[in-house]
Each structure stands twice: as C-alpha cells, then as structure tokens.
Write a structure and sequence with these properties.
The protein is 58% helix and 17% strand. By secondary structure, the chain is α+β, with helices and mostly antiparallel strands.
Length: 535
C-alpha cells in the first residue's frame, strides 16, 4: 500500500531534481556554479528516492536502510548549495581538494551513525513502524541533533554569503542574487517543523526541488553564471584599460572602472545606470555591429583628437556557441600624437636628405665643370672618354674625338684684355654646346682648347660634325669696346680604333690633326694621319 499523496510528491521532487541536475551538468565546463547546482540536484534526487521508499509500506529493514542512506542525499544538498552560494557570489571561485574532503566527511559519518544506531541508540532514541501504510517513525537522538545543527549552520553560512554579495553586485544581477537567496530560505524554514517538532511528514524535498528550479533559472537561463565568470576572470577593476562585456543582444553585462571613466569622456550625457543598457545607445549607433562583424582590433577616432583602440574577444560556451563579447579599449591619443609628430619629423628628414642629395649631386657636377665656361673640365673629360671607349670596344662601335683651339687667341687678350678673352671663350663655349647632341661630351681642356667626345661616330661623320662646329664658331660674334670680334677655330679629328685605341693616344692623335690644321693656315679641320697616330 502506498502513501499516495506524499509518495507522488517525492517522485515529482526526484524527477524535477534529476532534470535540473542534468541541465546544470551540461554547463559544468563553463562555471563552478553549474557543477555545484548539478551536485545539489542529484543529491536531492537521492534524498527524494529514499523518502519514496518509506512511502511504500515496505518492511522495517528496507525502510530503515533507506532512511539511513537518505542522509547522504541531505548532506550532498547542503554541501552543494554551500559551494553554489560561493560560486555565485564570487565568480571564478573553486573549492580546494581539502575543503571538499572536509565537506564530504559529515554526510559519511551521519550515514554510518544512522546505520549503526541499533548498537548505540544515539542517532534515534526509538524507531518503529506505525499507521497505514506502515511508515517509519523516529525519535531523534543527540547525534541527529548535531547533524541538524551542522546542516543549518552550513546553510546559514551560504545565505550569509549571498546576502553580503547582494548590495555589492551590479544592479542587473541583484534580482538573480535575491531570487537565489529567497529560494534558499524556503526549504530552510520549511524544514524547521520537522526538526523541532519531530513531525513525520517531511516535505523538504519538494521545497528544495522548487529551489533548484529557481536556481537553474537564475544561473543558466538569465546568464548570471554562464557569461560573467568567464569575463570576470579577465577583468581587474584596477586595470588602466577599459573592459566591457556585452551579450549577444548588445546589452552591457559588465564594465570596469576604467571603462566607466572612458564612457563618461565619450558620452557625458550617458545614463547613470550602464549595466543592462544597450551598448549602441551608450556608445553610439552601429557599435554592436562593428563588434560582431568588424576586425578583432580596430582604431577609431571617437572625436577630433581622441583615438580609441578596441580589441574584441568572442566568448563561447562549451558547445562553441557565442555567449557574448569582451571588449578591451584603450585611449591611444597620445601615441597617435607622437606617431604623427614622428611621421612629420621623418618627412622633414626625408626632404632634408633629398636636398642634401641634390646638393651633393650639384657639388659633384660643379666639380666636373669648368668655372668660366660651364663646360665639363679635363677631369670629367677623361672619365667620359674612358667610359665611351670601353663601351665602344665591347660593342664594336667607333668613338670620335674633336680637339679645337681658338685661332690667334693671344691677340684678343693682348688687344682687348683678359676680360674680353674670357667673354670670347664663353661665347664660343655656348656655340659648341648648341651643336652637341645627346650622348656627346663637350669639355674645356684648358686655356683656349676644347674637346668633344662623339660616341658611335666614324671618320666621315666625325669630319662633318667637326666642320659644323668650326662653322658655328666662325659665325659667333663677341662685342667688346664697341667692336664685334669674329673668331675662328682649328680642329683635329681622331677616331678609335682607326687612329688609336686608348684615351691618351686618341687625344694625341687629334692633337696632331690640330697641329696640321694650324700649320696649313688655321680655321680648318684635319683628320689625324693613321700612320702618324700609330707610330
């Protein structure tokens, strides 16, 4: 025969406890609180199962064993809720191995005392079956009183922890903490008549089942423990970086002091209550979309001169589902100002280096120029001639040299002065420069002598070019002291490899041609004699 009402209530309590325990166990990897809740509910299922045996009218030995083993479930409920309260109040808390051993010691001793009661009668002073169906009745002894006192002290400690954490919690979480606190009070107070008045009708398991449902709702569904402990382990209130935790819906779950200070700078008009608010309203439209879809690290100019660097970490549960986002923000305005200043300094340095390079090139160019005429000097001439000969020899192409000398230049200096002579040299230099082509080199060899290096020019073409140069100089006029002077030049031509192969010998060959031009009457061009050049 069953004690039907209470039997079915015990079964209902067990079903609720098992279901809640399984749900919490699935989240055990996310937080210690979920594990503690699962242990509490599985212990409650054990307790309810043992109670239901006593509702069946079973023989005295069966009810005695069930009633004794029941205290393992009672102890597990008390220990589980003790750990649950600390995990809720202090996210990230985990019991040490030593603490777990000490907490499990009392339930084991209680079960042993109950099973061995016929040997000492210290746990129950009397136990017997009575009523229909026959149900085990007990008269509690001193060891039971110690067990009850210990259990209530542990529950009282758990309630104290929750109560002390309540005013310090963020407003968004106070409702969850309050619901856990009230839910824990119900079975604690409901069990008082059973303990004080030794009533035989015990409905504590049903009350704890209700507590389990409320706890599961606060712990799992409302995200109190599934999100905050994961983020809170990374959050330190004294950090200089601003840390913000938002859930998938864009609600602010947590924020540290640095985050509040930065938010006030960004949005002075933001509401006083930040936690629980919409992040897009607090920070700006589209911020949540940037967090979800944007790069994990990004630099934003929040307002002119205020640069904020955001780094986002996505928080997942053990099934790899997104729980929310952890955003670490830092004011990098000073770094940006320093970087801009450094870039400006680098730009100025680059510009200065370019100027220096130009000056260096200019100095090198000036060093290769004749100061009076602006033509290349002897030093540059020899370098250019060597390069042209080397290239021409490698490619099998000729290189021509034209050596020019101003006719009767001494008369100009003696008659009109050296200033007039300098002007005459400048005028002839300009005439020569106009006759040169790309790739040619025209230089003042010294005094009134000029040299042109003509790459890839044979004897006939070199003679034509030299005649053009002579004619251009003959057409030039120099205005001095009211008179217009007409000057002429004599030229000698030599071509490599016909007349010589080296720079010095090639110039010597052109000089012999020039000598012949001077000897034959000046104002003419003479190609060097091949035989004479090779001798």
């Amino acid at each position: 025969m069953l004690d039907q009402p209470w039997f079915f209530l015990d079964v209902l309590s067990g079903v609720i406890a098992v279901s809640t325990g399984v749900l919490a166990w699935r989240h055990r990897g996310e937080t210690t609180a979920a594990t503690a809740l699962a242990v509490t509910m599985f212990s409650l299922a054990w307790w309810a199962s043992a109670e239901s045996v006593c509702r069946t009218g079973a023989p005295f030995p069966a009810q005695w064993v069930a009633q004794s083993l029941l205290f393992a479930g009672v102890g597990g409920v008390v220990v589980g809720f003790f750990c649950l309260s600390r995990a809720v109040a202090h996210p990230g808390w985990r019991p040490s191995r030593r603490l777990l051993v000490l907490l499990c010691l009392e339930p084991l001793l209680t079960v042993a005392a109950a099973l061995t009661n016929p040997l000492h009668d210290w746990f129950y002073e009397a136990a017997y079956l009575s009523g229909l169906p026959p149900t085990l009745h007990r008269q509690f002894g001193v060891l039971y009183a110690l067990h009850a006192s210990y259990s209530y002290l542990l529950l009282l400690g758990s309630l104290t922890v929750l109560a002390r954490a309540l005013p310090k919690a963020h407003p968004a979480f106070r409702r969850q903490l309050a619901s856990l606190l009230v839910a824990a009070l119900v079975p604690a107070l409901g069990n008082v008549p059973t303990v004080l008045f030794e009533t035989q009708v015990d409905h504590t398991t049903l009350l704890f089942a209700v507590t389990g449902l409320v706890s599961a709702n606060a712990v799992l569904r409302q995200g109190l423990l599934s999100l905050v402990p994961i983020a809170r382990d990374l959050m330190v209130e004294t950090m200089d970086d601003a840390i913000l935790v938002v859930d998938r819906a864009g609600r602010v779950v947590d924020i540290n002091q640095a985050g509040l200070r930065l938010l006030r700078r960004l949005r002075p008009q933001a509401p006083e209550q930040v936690v629980g608010g919409c992040v897009d309203v607090l920070i700006g439209p589209g911020f949540m979309r940037t967090v979800q879809d944007g790069p994990r690290a990004q630099l934003v100019e929040a307002r002119p001169g205020l640069f904020i660097e955001h780094r986002t970490v996505t928080l997942h549960d053990r099934r790899d589902e997104v729980l929310g986002y952890l955003i670490v923000s830092r004011d990098v305005s000073e770094n940006q100002r320093q970087r801009a200043a450094l870039e400006q300094a680098n730009q100025r340095l680059t510009e200065q280096l370019a100027v220096i390079e130009q000056l260096r090139d200019q100095l090198a160019e000036d060093a290769s120029r004749d100061a009076l005429t602006g033509l290349h000097n002897r030093r540059h001439l020899m370098s250019a001639l060597d390069a042209a000969l080397a290239e021409g020899h490698g490619a099998g192409r000729p290189v021509a040299v034209v050596l020019l000398d101003v006719d009767h230049f001494k008369r100009v200096n003696d008659t009109y002065g050296h200033a007039a002579g300098d002007l005459a040299l400048q005028t002839l230099s300009e005439a020569l420069r106009r006759e040169t082509r790309a790739g040619d080199t025209v230089a003042r060899l010294g005094g009134e002598e000029f040299v042109l290096v003509l790459p890839d020019v044979g004897v006939e073409q070199a003679l034509q070019r030299a005649e053009s140069l002579r004619s251009a100089c003959a057409r030039a006029r120099v205005d001095v002291e009211g008179a217009r002077l007409a000057l002429t030049v004599s030229a000698g031509v030599a071509v490599s490899p016909d007349h010589a192969s080296g720079a010095t010998r090639l110039l010597a060959a052109a000089d012999r041609g020039l000598y012949e031009a001077k000897r034959d009457g000046r104002n003419r061009v003479v190609v060097a004699s091949c035989m004479a050049a090779r001798s």
